[in-house]
Amino acid sequence: TMLCCCNPGSAQDQAFEQAGAREVGKVEGSARPEQTKAAAQGPVKPAEKSDGGFEVRLARDSTGDRLGFTLEVHPKAAYVAAVDEEGDTPAAAYNRGAEEGRRICPGDRILSADGVRDPVAISKVIATNPSVKLALRRPRTFEQALKKDGKPLGMRIHHPRDARAVYIDSIKEDSPVRAAGVDIAVGDRIVAVNGRGGT
User: Fold this and answer.
1) Which of 14, 31, 102, 174 is the most buried (most CB within 10 A)?
2) What 8-state DSSP symbol labels residue 67?
3) What is the Cα–Cα distance from 45 to 55, expressed in whole angstroms?
4) How many angstroms separate the CA atoms of 49 and 101, rounded?
């Protein structure tokens, strides 16, 4: 079995937030969508971070307006599920002005929203706060071949509703995963199995 996994890098996440990354772009205030778009198209200076973490502030006129991305919320983490790249949403406007390595992308882990780290609380902050400061991190993606030898892999997985990936909730100590000594951990997202991704 070939698994394609995303490792969220929890230790690096904590270090990143404690260090306090600089903002790499702002879309804020009470501007109309066309003004917000223009404000985000200037040069964006990337944060000098080697661990893939960055911060961005997105703002909308009211909580009824969309920020321009959807979430996948797992008990242990929140991720960007999809991003509106074509509209006049704050996320789309930000991405048009940001360097490639600092754009908001599907699969990015949301470390915090306005300083809140709990995944469920993050979703509420994003839904209710007109202006939101997000700390994001791009997970490390890797492939790992595992031999089942007719046995279960020994992992308990969680599939959130409408999610494009499953999450590893636990791994048995006597499982083929542990026996292989591979770099797969609780909290990782499995985004593909034997070349087939989620839909």
Assistant:
1) 102
2) -
3) 12
4) 11
Among left, alpha and beta (phi > 0; psi -120 to 50; other), residue 115 is left
User: pTM for the complete prediction?
Assistant: 0.68
Q: Map residue 129 onto helix, strand or coil.
A: coil
Q: What token pair was written down for 151?
A: 């046995």
Token reading at 185: 């951990």
Token digits of residue 111: 């470390």
Q: How far apart are CA 55 and CA 104, in angstroms?
A: 10
Residue 25, classed as helix, strand or coil, is: strand
Give how far Cα 35 sits from Cα of 27, 57, 60, 132, Å. Answer: 10, 16, 11, 18
Burial class from Cβ neighbours inside 10 Å (0-12, 13-18, 19+) for residue 187 reads: middle
Query: Where would I find the H helices in 40-89?
Result: none
